[in-house]
């Protein structure tokens, strides 16, 4: 295990030497007579912990600790003071001191205080290592090297540090808003809590309130006899991701606003207020300000959801990312289908970059999956992609002729066996490039019905 490093900043030579002797061998110890020598040394080689005398010559110990922590926020400090003055101690704590000890120093007391501070440091490092390992092994990459996407990810790193600040992710369909939500969650202090995803458009409006906030037994006809926890409750200690938040009805919007403002909610049919610590991250591909003007979205809710707003650029707006993303999906689907493609032919890669990806990354992924499945190799050719400069070939999706048995009244997904229903919905999505509205149109059914069935079939 790594040996912790401790810096001693004390102007009294006898005290400084005594502390150093007591700690030598257990820790890596460096000693300084003043802040002016400790601060630059700490910039070059930051310690884990600093023992800082409060009454230093020149810069005070409180100022020095504040400056050192600004450069290295993980640094912990223990203040050494000659007087147990409340105002001084409060000032030290505001500067970031972990604890304090009073002169004359007792070695046993000092060692206990140091031990507590180092245990805090150890736990923080353990959490960070666990978080980084989980991110590396479980969270999908948000691929891209363009300046636009680098700026987005830098912004995400910053906003993720909060455990409760609401975030609104805006972007076109298929840009990867759910990946950004996952990145925010797993980089936040809540990363060990649940990430609960809710597609607001896939839940019928008369059920969304009970799904979000739960219900008490007997709240309505068909309600469970034991009641039910809502998704807000299930996400306690973690993150609730509300995808397609613009599809929420006004009544559900009012309840969500109350929860965001007061941190509490009532289950449907209940009189008891519940309080949970749940961060809300939402996403939309709609113009919420336009919906506000139409009276379909609450302005006060918008400003609560968009305390921080993240804009995801479209794939067409960052063309330098298209080829790397396509190569990533090529590797993924070669592994899935047991194929060995050497890459893309030059004309295939040129076509990929020139294509207008209306469905963004999701549409690109669908095209690469199909190309790997039907291509013969050794490289994926332009003919395997079936795209032109405007986008994927949608001639096959021009009408319901692609789907036998689709009547003028539309296909009845409820009467189909599950496997067949999955086939119809999957093919409709493939032919529409992942666009749910067009997919529903191919099947001649209502968009909300399509989304509900898609969610129920776990597609």
Question: Can you walk me through this structure?
Answer:
This protein has 459 residues and is of the alpha/beta class. It has four domains: 5-131, Response regulator (Rossmann fold), CATH 3.40.50.2300; 147-311, Rossmann fold; 316-393, Helicase, Ruva Protein, domain 3 (Orthogonal Bundle), CATH 1.10.8.60; 396-456, no CATH class. The chain is 46% helix and 12% strand. The protein contains 19 helices and twelve strands. The protein has helices spanning 13-23, 35-44, 61-71, 86-94, 107-138, 147-159, 177-186, 205-213, 231-234, 250-262, 288-293, 299-305, 322-337, 346-354, 360-374, 382-385, 418-431, 436-443, 447-456, and strands at 5-9, 28-32, 49-53, 76-81, 97-102, 167-170, 195-199, 239-243, 264-266, 273-275, 279-284, 308-311. Strands 2-1-3-4-5 form a five-stranded parallel β-sheet, with helices on both faces. α4 (86-94) links the parallel β4 and β5. α2 (35-44) packs parallel to α3 (61-71), α13 (322-337) packs across α15 (360-374) and α18 (436-443) crosses α19. The longest helix has 32 residues, at 107-138. Mean pLDDT is 83; it is low at 394-408.
Task: Estimate the strand proportion.
Answer: 5-15%
For CATH, the homologous superfamily of the largest domain is named as: P-loop containing nucleotide triphosphate hydrolases
Radius of gyration: 29 Å
Structural class: alpha/beta
Biggest sheet record: 5 strands, parallel
